[in-house]
Amino acid sequence: MNIYPMAVIRGCRVALHLIYGALLALCYPHLDRARQLRMLRKWSKQLLGILNIRIGADCHLQPSGCLMVANHVSWLDIFVLNTIQPAHFIAKAEVRGWPLIGWLCKRSGTIFVERTLRRDAAKVNQSAATLLRQGACVGLFPEGTTTDGSRVGHFHSALVQSAIDAEVMLCPVALRYLDAEGKPATAAAFTGDTSLALSLLRVLCCRQINVSVAFPPALPAANGNRRMLARMAQESIAHSLQTSPPRLQPEPVPSAAIPLLSTQSAYVLLLDPVINQLAR
């Protein structure tokens, strides 16, 4: 793994973007849902832009009130999905202890679950079902761990119960990371004993990563069986990963009127984007 100058520049920009995110997080819980979704989508898209990660998606999810279930490859998964459909994600309790990132996740409404405690799953299902009934999207990685992206692990069904209780749609999402040549991007995989710092370094050193996001048909969860729903979602995602990835979305042309005030080019004005978000 070669550390080239661009990786150092990216690393500095990521650090500044995290500081910017911390400032946004101070006001995030006090905003209405529409502003929260816009803020979350914009911040996630900017982070992926810094890392030169491009997304190709075959369609979009319904705007609200669904449980997204996706295969889990990387810590990048959450930001990829938030760029497409911002959601409250269910994450393992260990994430809460990650420096700064854990705090940001907590402020943005992440639901933490202690997987070793069965009774904790019931509490998480109740919290997730409440959000789903309110029209929010909730994200879940039923594998409970990450893979290298070449396969889909077993889907645990316990937390699928929230979609059944809230009587919403279960929306499978297939994630696949590719390099500029269309080959699997192993740098994105967050597996084994790899630390978050080392994983971030690998991503920073990767010149470009493309993410293929596919949405198999949604499954109605009302009155369903959670084990059957989990198995159907797992099979549909596995099938999607065997098909050709969708084309990358063309990058939008930035407006010439505002480049000097963008969060990408003017991090010295960190407070200015916060004020602008509150004013909208």
From TrEMBL:
Catalytic activity of the protein: a 1-acyl-sn-glycero-3-phosphate + an acyl-CoA = a 1,2-diacyl-sn-glycero-3-phosphate + CoA
InterPro entries in UniProt: AGP_acyltrans, Plipid/glycerol_acylTrfase
Keyword Isomerase tagged: no
The UniProt record lists the keyword Lipid biosynthesis: yes
Pathway: Phospholipid metabolism; CDP-diacylglycerol biosynthesis; CDP-diacylglycerol from sn-glycerol 3-phosphate: step 2/3; Lipid metabolism
Ranges where the Phospholipid/glycerol acyltransferase domain occurs: 66-178
GO cellular component, one term: membrane
Protein name in UniProt: 1-acyl-sn-glycerol-3-phosphate acyltransferase
Species: Ferrigenium kumadai
Lineage: Bacteria, Pseudomonadati, Pseudomonadota, Betaproteobacteria, Nitrosomonadales
